[in-house]
Amino acid sequence: METIVSKHTLFEYLAGRANPLERQLVEDWIVQKQNAETFHHWLLEYETRCPQFLPDQEAALSNLLRRLDSGLEVHAEEQMLEDESRRLPWLTGRSNRFWLVAASVTLLVSCGWWFREPLQYKSYQTAYGQTTDVYLEDGSRVALNSNSKLKVPRLGFNGTVREVLLEGEAEFSVSHTIDNKRFVVKTSDKFQVEVLGTTFSVFARPRGTKVALKSGSVRIDYSQNDLHREVMMEPGDLAFLDHEGAVQLERKQDMKTFASWKEQRYVFNGTPVREILAMIEENFGQKVSLSDSNIALRSITGNFKTKNAEELLKTISEVLDVKVEQNGSTILLTNN
Predict the structure, then answer these.
(1) Which of 38, 172, 201, 327 has the greatest number of beta carbons closer than 10 A?
(2) Which domains does the chain have, with CATH numbers?
(3) pTM (two decimals)
């Protein structure tokens, strides 16, 4: 026989005022799967009307993120459970604690907390001069360049899309899944790279956005003038956003010049000095000025292995026959 419970009866139960018969009816009703949606809806309404406490949301969020990042299981404080148990006799036993957690999650969602980015994503961030490898749950590997951030869903790749967010520069080696689940790298609301299984590099910094494809195939989705556009790439292609917000392709590029930073190498092929100096600031946090604007127009070709900005600047000074002058945090390149 199907158990029927009214909203009033549930509210009395939650308030600890239900009699033994009502408590048994509610507990039998709660465990029936077809009642789950109604239960959560009424529970949210009850908690909205009769909040048990007024939380410090920022402190609670900070504490939750700290526990999540450290890999600890999140539990309510023992004193809180004791207090709740006094008010709500039904909150006893492991199964009843499940409903307390479910109620908490429901409240978080209703308040919009779940849509706060720190709760949705775990961030991996590198400092200046630091690189690291991030291994995702699907077997994919991400080599993250310095001064870059990768955001990955905390609860894994659920749904039909494996989506990550990138700020900076990274090389992706994406694993194929048996269900052909798409892999998407978003650099902004207007630009994303979609793949199935491939190796590619993404550069997403303030001075520009580039994608270099080593193997496989990718599709770039982007918006230009509020219109959705798509570009398919083949191995050896370099795609970049031009000043008008359109994606341009350069075919048959040397892919060895991309992501060489993984080996602490910098490969230049007629690269203007101004671009190299911008790269030094992005990767090492060192801003370099020029005494003569004509130096910025010169270019460098070569393969240089360096560990830090100082070594790279020394190499540049030798190639261009210029001097490196440093005064505190200020670095200046001057003609000899």
Answers:
(1) 172
(2) 7-115 (no CATH), 120-257 (2.60.120.1440), 264-335 (3.55.50.30)
(3) 0.64
